[in-house]
Amino acid sequence: MLIAREYSTAAAARDALAGRLDRAFIPSLFDRIDWFESLHAHCFPHVPLRVLHTKQGDSEAWLFLLATGARRLSALANWYSFSWSPIFLGNPDEDTRRRLIEVMAGHLLTTSAHIDFYPVTDEAGLLLDAFRRAGWFAVRRPMGGRHILDLDGRDFATYWAARPSRLRNQVQRKARASRFAIDIRHDFTGALWRDYVTVHASSWKQPEPGLPFLRALAEREAAAGALRLGFARLNGQPVATQLWTVENGAALIHKLSHDRAFDGGSPGTLLSHAMFAHAIDTDRVQRIDYGTGDNAYKAEWMERREPLHRLDFFNPRFASTWLPAARTAISALVG
Q1: Are the beta carbons of 273 and 213 closer than 8 angstroms?
Q2: Distance spanning both ends of the chain, measured CA to CA
Q3: Looking at residue 186, which CATH number applies to its domain?
Q4: Where in the numbering of this chain does the BioF2-like acetyltransferase domain appear (predicted)?
Q5: CB-CB contact of 205 with 241 (8 Å)
């Protein structure tokens, strides 16, 4: 008989995993125990953690969740997460994956009234099916997108020639008059991070609530050789910055910032040009992922949009969920 086990701390989950969600075994940054551990510690320190685990033979599934309210659960994810999904180990087939999730969904019926997962991509259909089989009322809603570039062996020159003429002309025009020096670093130092924070404080963005999380990410990825921290500088002063990570043939664009006082020179666009060139021709990546968000500028650099979904699950055993479930279902129908 399959059973679901629970862990209430990241440390307990890490001990139970015994290294199976470490970098050496998991190619995706967003599926590793150190990602979840750091995200919880820096961004949700006062929100109880619930980690579920089910195993069948050599196959297992893990769910990293937050107890966000009374009988309320959410995916352990936020705006830093490019995607969220169950994590499967042991290469289970589709039926086994569904069964593992169904067991955990049935376990959650005893304690939870409403669960939401976002941002979900590939596993949306599997999750909906498994939770419905377990007795949940499930609703899927499209919510934004994720912009991706697949290089398919192209070098930077070939990729760049296919960009919209408006973007290519802008870069050519601004580069001719540019006084910015481009600096792309693979290491992490306190001085580099102070430069990053300085640019962010002068950018168009709101104050960054997760700087400690981003610093921990940058330090961890630099130690693994995966950090790409780019700067555009004017006379040594940082005026634009980008935080990327690169590994396993893929580049992830985590954060971009620029000092608004230098908008006329487009240092952010020139830095993007250099970062893309470095990732494609030096790091030889085959995919670049711009993360969540449908900002118009992303479509100029990327070639494919992957829809993101929010999944809501309502426990019909609780009358308090009936009206919210109906409203959510109607919302999904009308878009």
Answers
A1: no
A2: 41
A3: 3.40.630.30
A4: 170-298
A5: no
Count CA atoms within 13 Å of residue 87 on its CB side.
Answer: 26
Q: Quote the number of domains for the chain.
A: 2
Whose CA is closest to 139, among 324, 9, 265, 286? Answer: 324
User: Which pair of tokens denotes residue 302?
Assistant: 């990327």
User: What is the DSSP track for 208-244?
Assistant: -TTHHHHHHHHHHHHHTT-EEEEEEEETTEEEEEEEE
Residues 238, 134 share a domain: no
Going from the C-alpha of 315 to that of each of 67, 109, 126, 134, 159, the distances in angstroms are 15, 7, 18, 10, 48
**What is the C-alpha to C-alpha distance for residues 220 and 214, in angstroms, rounded to an integer?**
10
| Dihedral angle of Cα 68, 69, 72, 78, to the nearest 10 degrees | -20
Residue with tokens 């396993």: 248
Residue 183 to residue 238: CA distance in whole angstroms: 10
CB neighbour list of residue 105: distance below 8 Å, 6 or more residues apart: 130, 131, 133, 134, 135, 136, 313
Asked if residue 84 lies in contact with residue 76, where contact means CB atoms within 8 angstroms, the answer is: yes
- The string of pLDDT tens digits covering residues 32-76 is 999 999 999 999 999 999 999 999 999 999 999 999 999 999 999
My answer on whether 140 and 159 are in the same domain is no
* Residue 40 sits in the same domain as residue 116: yes
Q: Which domain holds residue 261?
A: 153-285
Token pair of 85 as six digits:
């999904």
* Secondary structure (3-state) at 106: helix
Q: What is the pTM of this model?
A: 0.94
275-291: per-residue pLDDT in tens? 999 999 999 999 999 99
Q: Is 180 exposed, middle or buried (0-12, 13-18, 19+ CB in 10 A)?
A: buried
Return phi, psi of residue 165, to 5°.
-60, -35
